[in-house]
Write a structure and sequence with these properties.
Layout (H helix, E strand, L loop, with lengths): L5 E4 L4 H12 L4 E5 L6 H11 L3 E5 L8 H7 L6 E4 L7 H6 L1 H29 L3 E5 L17 H15 L6 E5 L8
Parallel strand pairs: 1-2, 1-4, 2-3, 4-5, 5-6
Length: 186
């Protein structure tokens, strides 16, 4: 067992829960973060029972950038690993016709995750250790054809990932981009 927590952003997703189980099986305490996190209590109880680790629930909205710092301040401990599996795809036909809906896709898949991960990176740097794992376009990386909803966040997020990989190692932090590696049931 280790006392280094793992934060899962987007813990309501199947991928987030699978990642939480993998880390919990290695003895890591788990911090599950999602909108309306209380709805994840059955997941929390299952993780704790199966793996004998502490599991906490935390409300998190990737679209509420003003809430990022208070969210991190509310965690029982700064995680050693932060995994973002946040993603939103919407309906392709609607995204093509409605700028607000297309914007929601971009904010959910890039702007929000980039913001919270950058804030975490700064805190990891101050501490001197930490690992960030970002899964790009969770909603769109399921093997289907690229669409307007899934393609835009990828090219925008890749330069962010590259910049992190270049700069953060000098700061004792590590960025691990995972793109098209994991699959979940549709």
């Amino acid at each position: 067992m280790t006392d280094l927590p793992v934060l899962i952003l987007g813990a309501r997703s199947d991928m987030g829960q699978a990642i939480a189980h993998a880390f919990a099986a290695q003895g890591h305490p788990i911090q599950l973060a999602a909108r309306n996190a209380a709805g994840l209590d059955a997941v929390r109880a299952d993780l704790a029972l199966r793996h004998g680790v502490e599991v906490t629930l935390h409300d998190f909205d990737v679209l509420d950038s003003d809430g990022f710092a208070p969210f991190l301040d509310s965690l029982p401990a700064l995680p050693q690993v932060a995994v973002s599996v946040v993603g939103y795809m919407g309906e392709q036909a609607e995204n093509e016709q409605d700028l607000d809906k297309a914007s929601l896709v971009l904010r959910s898949n890039f702007e929000g995750p980039a913001g919270i991960l950058a804030l975490l990176a700064n805190r990891f740097e101050a501490r001197g250790s930490g690992t960030l794992v970002g899964v790009s376009s969770v909603a769109g990386d399921r093997g289907g054809p690229p669409t307007m909803s899934t393609v835009p966040p990828r090219p925008v997020s890749l330069p962010f990932c590259r910049a992190c990989a270049t700069d953060w190692p000098r700061r004792a932090c590590m960025w691990s981009p995972c793109c098209r590696v994991l699959s979940t049931p549709r």
